[in-house]
Amino acid sequence: MAIRINKYLSEAGYCSRRVADKLIEEGKVTINGKSPEIGTKIEEGDKVEVEGQIIDKSTKQKNIYLAFNKPVGIVCTTDRSVEPDNIIDFIKYPTRIFPIGRLDKPSEGLIFLTNDGDIVNKILRAKNNHEKEYIVSLNRPINRDFIKSMSNGVEILDTITKPCLVTQLGLKKFKIILTQGLNRQIRRMCESLGYRVKTLKRIRIMNIKLDVPIGKYRELSKEELLELKRLLEKSSKTFN
Fold first, then answer.
1. 53 and 97 part of one domain
2. What is the pLDDT of residues 99-113, one digit of tens each?
3. Fewer beta carbons under 10 A from the terminal one: N or C of the chain?
4. Residue 84's domain is classified under what CATH number?
5. What is the mean pLDDT of residues 32-52?
6. What is the CATH number of the domain that holds 174?
7. How many folded domains does the chain comprise?
8. Among this protein's residues, is 104 annotated catalytic?
């Protein structure tokens, strides 16, 4: 059965569908020696290459799921030529993996890495309301008005952020649980209220909590993975 080229690369464990589309746009993918368009379908027997490397879905390795504690200064990209401080070179995992989503360079904390392109799409699907929890410290003291504004929604990027749970932890520190993934969302929210983020740390994604030292990773347990997939299946059915 014919499948789209981005799905083929995802199922082969090469990259996510989103990254696959970018590679196609950049002319780095060929099918039978020719550059395809986004949406082109693969037929059985077609020869797929990315930058000269043959991608054979039938030889895909077992799925890998890692929880990594990203340090400040590491960039969540697989483009090793652009960023010397990229996440792939830092981890040095023996087989090809890629991050699910992003944590910007000045931020730290939990991020998943995998070779399972399908799970990437399910986790990143914003309408599924997957929780991500952060601890944030600011440059000056916060008050009830700040907590209320952050909780109810802040205008950034020509939209109002979704209501979220915000808890004050100290004079300049708070915890926030988001179900959105807007670009630099927490930093932009704070900036719109006149504050500057000093530190930002993600401590949970859905059912997975951060429990490894900075710069270290571990494999997700069988129990964690089963629960994660249950939550993803539940949300996909609810929101499709």
1. no
2. 988 899 999 999 999
3. N
4. 3.30.70.580
5. 90
6. 3.30.70.1560
7. 3
8. yes
